[in-house]
Sequence to fold (136 residues):
Amino acid sequence: MKLADVAWSDTMSIGITSLDNEHKVLAQKLELLKLCSNMNEPMEALLNLFDDLIETLHIHFTHEELIFKNISYPGLKQHAQVHAAILKKIKNYRDQLSNSTNQDDFRKILLFLDASIGGHLSLEDAKVKDFIHRAE
Ligand SMILES: [Fe+2]
Ligand SMILES: [Fe+2]
Fold:
């Protein structure tokens, strides 16, 4: 199974530079993980990259929620719940992989990471752009 390459594009900008930069880093780390998986790197190396991605995601979610709070974003509560649900599911997948040496198990999880992280950035985070540029 070969995974598609999904790169950052400026259309994904939400108009808050620090968060855009973090989104770029997340997209790059996800791409690196997919690249290493496609190259059949050892499971240990993949799991190290996966752990790093989870840590980066955790820090990003916390930072994003703080910024959304500071700009009084009305969707904050629901948005934070989505963050928590994504992180919980990803950590569960990570735990499942601890006992696996099967690279196909890892690829299935990559599809979920792509859909959940990529989808969240481009659909949910993007909503804040409308809020920032709303008519007064
Ligand atoms: Fe985000
Ligand atoms: Fe978010």
